[in-house]
Amino acid sequence: MTARSAGALMAETVAPAALPLRPATRKRGGPWLGIASAIVYLFLYVPLFVVVLYSFSATKVNAWPIQGYTLDWYRELMVDDDIQESARLSVTVGLIAAAVAVVLGTLAAFALDRSTFPGKPAFRFFVVMPIVLPGIVTGVAMLSFFSMLGWPLSKWTIIVGHATFCITLILNNVVARLGQLPRSLDEASADLGAPPGRTFWRVTFPLVRPAILAGAILAFTLSFDEVIVTFFLTGRDKTLPLLIWGRLRQGISPEINAAATVIIVVSLAGVLLSNRLSKQTTFGG
Fold this sequence. Notes:
- This protein has 12 helices and no strands.
- The protein is mostly helical and about 280 residues long.
- The chain has one domain: MetI-like (MetI-like fold, Orthogonal Bundle).
- The longest helix is centred in the middle third of the chain and has 34 residues.
- It starts with a helix and ends in a 7-residue tail after the last helix.
- The N terminus is likely disordered.
């Protein structure tokens, strides 16, 4: 065998790990991709920044440039009884709706992940449906349902309406988390003599808890600033977003901007905290 043929044979039989790998090149979209992204972000967040900026305006009229800055409008919020009552209602509705969604959404997630039953795909589809439908469709449907039952509109009808779409958030988070967990964990716990209840509380629940908390915070955030479904299901009491919407008929005042800023801060904090908890849902993270 010649030296050339021996070298060719060695090249054919060498392990793939020993062969030099060509570094992967990432195709860049050029400067236009960055410019397009910047335009999208500006389109989304500049209006929010303007609302926050005007909430500190010293004048009652929104005019540019701003003549001066003050915190008086936030002090007005603190003494406005209607604002305070509507804020408490929004927090109450959000907490109860999120709590109901945590219980029902978690149970539904375990049923979908751990059980096999007829109509399972249809069940998953109908559970996700409320958050896919337009808010006006959900609101009209819930209003018709409560009218058929003869239930008066109150904060409890708002809670039920909000819980319908909050359940989907919890369900999706917990199902995704359960899909990451190896079944060998439960089997190992059973081999060690742990009953199913102890396995759930000591093994499964601590691993899915970040996903449940992330979904609960996101559910509260969406419930806190929800408008359309609330509009159809509210009674005499008004949530904070509905109160702001009603006062907008008289014009946009700095106090309204201050109230909107509070909603923006609460929503932003909820989304950031939910995102931080979601990063902990990766197995081993």
